[in-house]
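Record type: monomer structure entry
Structure origin: computed from sequence
Chain ID: A
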Amino acid sequence: MKTRSTLRTLTLSTLTLGVLAFNSPAAMADWVLKFAHPHPTEDSEHLAAEHFAKQVEERTHGEVKVRIFPNGQLGSDQAMISGVQAGTIDIALSGNPYFSGMVGELGVLDLPFLFDNAGQAHKVLDSTTGRQLLDMFDAKGIKGLAFWEVGFRNLTNSRHAVHTAADIKGLKLRTTPNPAHLKAFTALGANPVPMPFAELFTSLETGTVDGQENPVTLIRSAKLYEVQKYLSLTAHAYTAAPVIMNKAKFDSLPKDYQDIVMDEALKAAAFQRDLNAKNENKDLAFLQEQGMEVVSDPDRDSMRKVVEKPVRDWFVEKYGSQWLDAIEQAKQAAGQ
């Protein structure tokens, strides 16, 4: 039989646990947002996501909390995008090529040799044209927050060094499912194999594919140097990374909190781009130290001649010339 003292102790303990639970960060937050992305925790995308989460929580006084799920924990790129659309995931970050099936016009950003340098790409993505592209998500139940980046794609493989377009012929290369990427590598005589990023390391390790194409920073953070011997700095395409949010969840936030989320997504884009720029040379040196053979000045013109015009012509035939024209105008304005 419990004594009155024992009952009083149990009651106080229960109340104390209730207060502690109520005062936990998750309980105190009015909105807890799940943020999913496919890359390792060492990658700039994850570091930028942490920066974004910290700033949003601070500026909303803890009422909006962001929980990050890196490294494909919530599924492949396509699964995460579908999750945002369905509302099972609140925010996701993925490479632009994975959105081409949803908003085909975004494929303009994936055209080979579209941008001359990162600064030019950033100016275009942050321009009115970039915002118009992000706003096309609205019709899909998604809010486009900002463009972060994957970066300029460089070619790696385990068979031989790539100096010219001819060296690409016959290579079995993992690519994204984006039609522009597939058409470009097919034109170069390669065998492109689209697959999720999460499957890439194992596919390289087992020889399912010979190589892949990604920025230097991601080649390091994903430890692809462990299964790839040759790196050629082709910079054949730039890949943006839209940060998207379930539109119903975004609309449920108070207007001032919507503004904070949008503002911090843009600031995190600048944060992430700066990290990539600072780390690129250091990451390249690291890859060389691990034994990768680097072709620092491949014949990019030989590649451009094969892929630039036919892939652009394909895009214009399918979606019209207005988006490509708008980007060219934005590029010219960025150079002024």
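Annotation 1: The beta strands are 31-36, 64-69, 91-93, 142-157, 172-175, 191-194, 211-214, 230-246, 293-295.
Annotation 2: Residues 255-289 form the longest helix (35 residues).
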